[in-house]
Amino acid sequence: MSAGPRDAVISADGADGADGADRAHERERRRIARRAVAEVWSDREGARGVLDLAYLVYIAVVSVLVLGVPALRAAGILLARPDVLPVLSAPVTGALLGGGSLMGAALLVLAGAGHGPAVLAPFFAVTLAASERPRRTALIRPFARSGIAIALVLLAVSIVLGRVLVLGAQASTGGAVALAAASLGIALAFQGAWLAGQVLGAGARRLLAGLLALAGIAVALVGALSGSEEAQRALAGAYPALPGAAAGASPEQGTVLWALGLLVLGLLVVAACIPALDRVRGRVLVDQGRRWESATTAARSSDLAAAAGTYRALPTTGRRLRAVRGGGRGPLALAALYLRRDLVALMRTPERLLIAAAGVLLAGGLLALSRGLTGPLAVLALVIGALMLWSASGVFVDGLRHGIQTIGAPRLFGQSTRAQVLLHSPAPLLVLIVLSAAGSACALLIGPGTGPAAAGGGAPAPAAAALVLAPALAATLVLGRIRDAAKGPMPLALTTPMPTVQGDASIVPMLLWQADAPLFALVIAAALTAALGSSWALATGVWVLALVLLALDARRRVLELSPGAR
């Protein structure tokens, strides 16, 4: 007997009731799971309550008022000098800052692949990734902390610049306020670029970084090479040091509009970042959390090399490129083989290579500009350029590190440690010298006081000295990298307590031991700069002396690691 209409209705109602019960059961299961994850998150080690957060805010505000404000005020007074104001008030400065901001955003996009703004401990990252709780609820705190750090740095720089321009009568107070507001908007946009690098895949990340970098290069080149005051004014954006800025009672309308536009843009970017936190992949969260934990553990144990090695990029492209290709015999063929192998190895980590190349180019430009500047700006450009060149050079010396690491190991490739170090040297020397010379040449186009006019008294011409400084320093830093690779473990004698009235001072020799290589780079850069201001003979003598001292110290360290390696 077939079922009637009434039976069909009863059957449909029963199915709907079963579906409703399943949905209710699923909602209850999700609620329980979210409650469990929330309990784990709230009971985590170091969890802060409302009072703890209020106390931290109080400490931060007091520290800014007591330490930060006087320091920024003193820095502004120190830089308000006749040899600094013409550089900061030059029409090209605003365009260069704008282009640099775009290139900085590109670097943050690439950096987000290794360490993003939202990073948790591995346990909480796994717990969060495996739960159905919205990820933004846990990631919003580290995201906010990293954003506050970027904002404080840019605000401090903008406050110092604004105060210098106001004290030098190159901008109005309203223009300085507009500059600070614009820097806050740029900081928020930087935060969004950093998160984009953490969320996006490899292809989209490289495309976005490339577009930002090209835009930054275009803005900087147009501003530097254009002789039009209108073009430079348009590219300067919210930078208030423009012709006639100090004459009016208020900042230019364009400066204020640019500042408001950048601030609104930054707020919109952050508003879009909050839902984007839910799109951070669980694998990325866990991987970055583990890297960060390993790096901090190594740093606490005073092993900064291991901490930096944690973030070394893995090969991603170029697997089909042949790093080893036979052909020819003799020392020249062997040297060409090692050169090809090292260059192919660099191409297999393109993002790491591009960041390092940009760092070397910028370092070369800063070192060249330091020859044309005077006073605090010259010292600042020299210090930042030398440290940046040292940091970027580490990407190109993986072969040298491998040669040092083979001390005491069997000769798998048939060459001794000394031979491998020598054969791995041409690649970093070639790349660093070419890139640093290119950066110096670009800086000569816009640098003050580095024209081709010859200097008197037998001293090198300013342009020639500016062009030679960075490549000469790059050659010495390759030897410095060999010396640093053979450093060995820190002597236990440095950890001996040194009681003083202010506390244990043993941290000072430990920090000096850790930072000896960058300090040597600064000393050599300062010595070369001083020698180039005198004569070519003195500069050549200082350069050769630095090479000899670094080579002898590197040999001593290698022999200490392996007394039989001669």
General description of the model:
- The protein has helices at residues 5-42, 50-79, 85-88, 91-111, 122-129, 136-167, 173-199, 202-225, 229-236, 253-276, 282-300, 304-309, 331-347, 350-372, 375-393, 398-405, 417-424, 426-444, 462-485, 507-514, 516-532, 536-561, and strands at residues 499-500, 503-504.
- With 566 residues, the chain is mostly helical.
- The chain has a two-stranded antiparallel sheet with strand order 1-2.
- A hairpin with a 2-residue loop joins strand 1 and strand 2.
- Helix 2 (50-79) packs parallel to helix 6 (136-167), helix 15 (375-393) packs across helix 21 and helix 19 runs parallel beside helix 22 (536-561).
- The protein is globular, with a radius of gyration of 29 Å.
- The model is unreliable at 244-249 and 449-457 (pLDDT under 50).
Pick out its properties:
globular; mainly alpha; 566 residues; two-stranded antiparallel sheet
Number of helices: 22
Number of E-state strands: 2
The 3D shape can be described as: globular
Largest sheet: 2 strands, antiparallel
Spell the H/E element sequence: HHHHHHHHHHHHHHHHHHHEEHHH
What's the mean pLDDT score? 80
Radius of gyration over C-alpha positions, nearest whole angstrom? 29 Å
SS strand fraction: under 5%
Q: What class do helices, strands and sheet pairing give? A: mainly alpha
In which order are the strands of the major sheet placed? 1-2
Q: Uncertain regions: pLDDT < 50 for 5+ in a row? A: 244-249, 449-457
Helix percent reads over 70%
Distance between the termini: 102 Å
